[in-house]
Specification:
Layout lengths: L3 E5 L5 H12 L10 E2 L5 H5 L3 E7 L18 H4 L12 E7 L11 H12 L3 E3 L2 E2 L11 E2 L2 E2 L2 E3 L8 H16 L4
Parallel strand pairs: 1-2, 1-3, 3-4, 4-5, 4-9
Antiparallel strand pairs: 6-8, 7-8
């Protein structure tokens, strides 16, 4: 089994594309598993990893992706309740989130904050905080002490910054994940 699990929830496919870009940086299958949509994952599979990278978009007014948020398939909203019994103590988790800072400035990447709160409440050590500089938003549940709880990408308004931000973030979490960069 690879050392790092890479899981995402998605609606439009953008979060999946970022997961695949992350995996492309680490093609060694012994190091990182293939990116897997949470609608195909099991709690046991997630629990089997000591290192996790989790990604989510924010939908609507700050929602996790899922059937109630008009996704065609189950996603984080349906999977998180299945993870309630998983102990994340001793696990290192890095998070990334996608959002639209122009249309949803009042709840920009809120789902990232919800995912963060879920895993930290179960003992996870979350790494990879990301600066809020360079974003224009009013408030976010993903902001703590002037930083986001993970990498934030805006594919609607700042797609041209995605590659550089992703590369910088992967270097940032490399030491915590013992990643060769």
């Amino acid at each position: 089994m690879p050392r790092i699990g890479l899981f995402f929830g998605s609606s439009t496919g953008n979060t999946r594309k970022i997961a695949k870009a992350i995996k492309k940086h680490f093609p060694d299958d012994d190091l990182m598993a293939e990116a897997l949509n949470v609608n195909k994952a099991t709690p046991e599979l997630v629990a089997g990893y000591d290192y996790l990278i989790l990604g989510t978009p924010t939908l609507g007014e700050g929602d996790l992706p899922g059937l109630d948020a008009d996704c065609q398939n189950p996603s984080w909203a349906e999977f998180l309740p299945q993870l309630e019994g998983v102990d994340f103590s001793g696990k290192t988790v890095a998070l990334y989130g996608l959002g639209d800072q122009d249309k949803y400035a009042d709840n920009f990447v809120d789902a990232l904050g919800l995912l963060h709160d879920f895993v930290t409440a179960r003992g996870a050590n979350v790494v990879g905080a990301w600066p809020t500089d360079g974003y224009d938003f009013m408030k976010s549940k993903a902001e703590r002490d002037g930083e986001f709880v993970g990498l934030v990408l805006d594919q609607d308004n700042q797609k041209h910054l995605t590659d550089d931000r992703l590369e910088t973030w992967l270097r940032l979490i490399a030491a915590d994940f013992d990643l060769p960069l």
